[in-house]
Amino acid sequence: MELQGDVEKFQLSDIFQLLSACRKSGTLGVQRGEDVIMVYFREGNIIFAHNPYNRLRLGELLLKKGRITPAQLQKITQIQKELKGKKRIGELLILENFITRKQLEELVRLQVEEVIYDLLKWNKGNFKFYENRFPTQEEITIKISTENLILESVRRSDELERLKKKLPPFDTVLGLAPTEDERGKDISFKSEEWNLLTLVDGHRDIKKILDDSKADKIETLKKLAGLYLAGLIETVKKPSLEMKTDKLEKLLEQFNRSLEKYSEE
Question: Which of 12, 44, 69, 151 has minimal Cβ neighbours within 10 Å of its Cβ?
């Protein structure tokens, strides 16, 4: 899959969407001046991201976050030397009960998310996707929904004018975009987003959605932009009642599943 271009011409959120929808595996490299970010995908999900020229080693990262002590890191480093590198730092830390695998995964997830949130703000640079290629073997990888990352990056953004430019004209009708069942289960909506999705029925245009929403108009616009950039809603040329009914039924099923999961927890 040959995928490369200019960030000014192709939004990174669109590239993320494409790799997610096509369930691609490989590395997306994005460069802006001297800054380089590498994002690893496996079957459309993000499993790791980092700056290869500005990254902390795992032990240093855990030390910086206060998860291990200097003495613990020194002990693990010495054990690794004695084993001649046959076991990696993360594995040894878990074996010595200095940290649990869950704690390690949570820390890696936070670091990856922050890298992606920063990357999605870039409006300049170049990108290239290397299919089925991973430049490094990471000690620990995670699985993050690409759609969730895009949604959260917009939730955190306060650049309203920039977000408005990401949306089509306000007289554009919006509808729910088709989502595979398995991928749909990984998407986490907030209650306000669920309410907004009920207005995206394939008949209302953006202006009508804003008018009918009971929430703050600016916040509604931000949420609408997030859903659109994440590929969860799309423009509709010919609204149809059948499309509206089918998609809303699927949406309600997903909502009910999320409530059941919440009640079980």
Answer: 69
